Amino acid sequence: MKRVFNFSAGPAVLPVAVLERARDEMLDYKGSGMSVMEMSHRSKDYMAIIANAEALLRELMGIPEDYAVLFLQGGASLQFSMLPMNLITDPASQSVDYVLTGSWAEKACSEARKLCADVRVAATTKSVNYTRIPTQAELTLNPNAVYAHITSNNTIFGTEYPYLPDTGDVPLIADASSNILSRPVEVSKYGMIYAGAQKNLGPSGVTVVIIRKDLMGRKANLPTMLDYQALAKEGSMLNTPPTYAIYILGLVLEWVKEQGGVNEMERRNIHKAGKLYAAIDGSAFYLCPTEVASRSRMNVPFTLANPDLTDAFLAGAKAAGLVTLKGHRSVGGMRASIYNAMPEEGIDALIAFMKEFERVNG
Ligand SMILES: *Cc1c(COP(=O)(O)O)cnc(C)c1O
């Protein structure tokens, strides 16, 4: 068996130890005689799995008691709609703020426009093709907004907030799909944090929502399946949850804990990303489009000074076992997604390939 270094933006690399554990437990989960996939979500074994996943997430992120943790379906993209649906009680008179730092932020904003008349753009860096994060001073926040929405890491453009935006009394909402658990966050500073699992938490199919309890239950007569309050009341089990995805998520959380927790993840991520950016910046052959202060530790875009060599780079990298490095079409070139589960050896192999490619083609 040969494993590659997979730099996919998502679904993305998982820790090998997690995959091995899932393999070992595949046919007979802890003596139950069945796979987790075949188990009733109401069974004792499964109730322990979902409770353990929630407890571990609470422990690793330091989630306070006055926050609910939900495991939902529909991806981070459904949260673009569920958030305004649940928090806006008077769509004609209320206002919300969005900071636009990339395509996902734009999508979140346009979904909100369908549900609220006054959606304001508190800042945007579109004019520089989203190569940087606006500073706090650049945010024109509305103190009367129902909430202010940010995308904490921009998966496509490779930028990440280097600071925690201060929104005063307005609840801060973060789409943290691509950097959750990569660094410590102070959950109490947020109204809600949400993340599709398939970047840093596990497989696709489950979305984590961490929401301050007083923000739930504000809107009456929502469709039950889209109502945070109703979902929280039933422990994310209004209907069958994505059982297997939550099980794998729990294994990933156990792995993070074993490795030393979120602080250790951050230490490694600073080190891994630092190495890769240094290799890019250290050569005129490679270019990085993003402003240094805004650079993401999770998604590293880079281009070749001679873009005609891009296809050859990608083909050579693939032959060397370094796959899914093609950049998003809106940025071009390459993008290396280096989430928690990407081992340092993967970074080293990529840097070695870059040096060799430059030596041959530079
Ligand atoms: C991947 C991604 C999404 C979309 O996630 P889905 O689960 O596919 O809906 C949204 N926001 C960000 C920041 C992402 O990286």
Automatic annotation (TrEMBL):
Query: Keywords of this protein's UniProt record, alphabetized?
Result: Amino-acid biosynthesis, Aminotransferase, Cytoplasm, Pyridoxal phosphate, Pyridoxine biosynthesis, Serine biosynthesis, Transferase
Q: Which cofactor(s) are needed, names only?
A: pyridoxal 5'-phosphate
Sorted alphabetically, which CDD domains does this protein's record hold?
A: PSAT_like (cd00611)
Gene behind this chain?
Answer: serC
Q: One of this protein's Pfam families, by short name?
A: Aminotran_5
Query: Which cellular compartments is it found in?
Result: Cytoplasm
Please report the name of this protein according to its UniProt entry.
Answer: Phosphoserine aminotransferase
Pathway it works in: Amino-acid biosynthesis; L-serine biosynthesis; L-serine from 3-phospho-D-glycerate: step 2/3; Cofactor biosynthesis; pyridoxine 5'-phosphate biosynthesis; pyridoxine 5'-phosphate from D-erythrose 4-phosphate: step 3/5
Q: How does it assemble?
A: Homodimer.
Query: How is the cofactor bound here?
Result: Binds 1 pyridoxal phosphate per subunit.
GO function terms (MF aspect): O-phospho-L-serine:2-oxoglutarate aminotransferase activity
UniProt: pyridoxal 5'-phosphate binding residues = A76, S77, W104, T155, D175, Q198, N239, T240
Q: Where is the Aminotransferase class V domain?
A: 4-350
Q: What role is this protein assigned?
A: Catalyzes the reversible conversion of 3-phosphohydroxypyruvate to phosphoserine and of 3-hydroxy-2-oxo-4-phosphonooxybutanoate to phosphohydroxythreonine.
The organism is Candidatus Magnetaquiglobus chichijimensis
Q: What family is reported?
A: Belongs to the class-V pyridoxal-phosphate-dependent aminotransferase family. SerC subfamily.
Q: Which residues carry this modification: N6-(pyridoxal phosphate)lysine?
A: K199
* Record's catalysed reaction(s): 4-(phosphooxy)-L-threonine + 2-oxoglutarate = (R)-3-hydroxy-2-oxo-4-phosphooxybutanoate + L-glutamate; O-phospho-L-serine + 2-oxoglutarate = 3-phosphooxypyruvate + L-glutamate
- Enumerate the residues binding L-glutamate: R42
Database matches in InterPro entries: Aminotrans_V_dom, Aminotrans_V_PyrdxlP_BS, Pser_aminoTfrase, PyrdxlP-dep_Trfase, PyrdxlP-dep_Trfase_major, PyrdxlP-dep_Trfase_small
Give the SUPFAM superfamilies listed for this entry. PLP-dependent transferases
Q: What is its EC number?
A: 2.6.1.52
- Major location, coarse class? cytoplasm
